[in-house]
Amino acid sequence: MPDLLISRAAIADRVSAIASAMCRDIGGPVHCVAVLNGAFIFLADLMRACDGPVTCDFLAVASYGAGQRSSGEVRITKDLDQSIEDRDVVIVEDIVDTGRTLSFLLATLRARGPRSLRTACLLDKRSRREVDVHVDYVGFVIPDRFVVGYGMDFDSRFRNLPDISVLDG
Ligand code: IMP
Ligand code: MG
Question: Atom 10 (ligand 1): residue with closest C-alpha?
C-alpha cells in the first residue's frame, strides 16, 4: 500500500482556505475549469467550499510521448463545452510538475478572452519545474515523489483514496 503523505483532514483545511481566497479575490461568479481526470475530486471539494456563485467545465489534455509524467508537447483531447469569454476563470489542476501542461493551458485559454484567468493547483512539485508558470493558489508544495489518491492515479488505480500517498515508497 502507498505511504501517507497528506491526510484528508489537512487537505480539507487547505481546500477551504483556497476556496475562500479565490472567492474573495474574484468577488463575483467564479468559473472553474478542471483538468480531467486528476482534478475531479479537488474540483468537487473546492466548489463545495465556495459560498458564492460558482460554475464548472472540464477539459482533458494529453502529452506526446508521456509516461506517468508529461513531457514535451501538450494537446487538448476533450475541450470545454462553454465559452469562457468575459468570465473570471480558474484553472483547477491536481499537480503542477514541469509546468508544461499549465503553461499550455494558460496560453490557450487566455487567447479565448476571459475577463481574468487564475490557476489553482492542489500540489506543486516545485523542484521539477522546467517552465516558469504562475500558480495563484497552491495547496501543498511536495517533494519529487510519485503520489496517488484524492483523484490522482497510477495506471488508473488509487483515485478513490481519500488521503494523498506516495507510491514510490
Ligand atoms: P506537468 O505538465 O509536467 O506540469 O504535468 C502535470 C501533470 O502530470 C499532472 O496534471 C498529473 O497528471 C501528472 N503528474 C505529475 N506528477 C504526478 C504524480 O505524482 N502522480 C500523478 N500524476 C502526476
Ligand atoms: Mg493532470
Answer: 95
pLDDT at 143 over 70: yes
- The owner of cell 497528506 is 6
The mean predicted confidence, pLDDT, of the chain is 94
Q: Which residues pair with 75 in a beta bridge?
A: 62
Dist CA 85 CA 89 (whole Å): 9
Nearest alpha carbon to residue 22 among 138, 130, 125: 138
The answer to whether the CB of 150 falls within 8 A of the CB of 11 is: yes
Around ion ligand 2, residues with a beta carbon closer than 5 Å are 38
Amino acid, res. 135 = V
* Of 56, 43, 45, 134, residue with least CA distance to 88: 56
Let me know: does 64 contact 71? Beta carbons within 8 Å. Answer: yes
How far apart, in whole angstroms, are the C-alpha atoms of residue 167 and residue 74? 25
Q: How far is CA 163 from the centre of its chain?
A: 16
Q: How far apart are alpha carbons 22 and 45 in whole angstroms?
A: 13
Q: Is the pTM of this model over 0.90?
A: yes
97 annotated active-site: yes
Dist. CA 20 → ligand 2 center (Å): 23
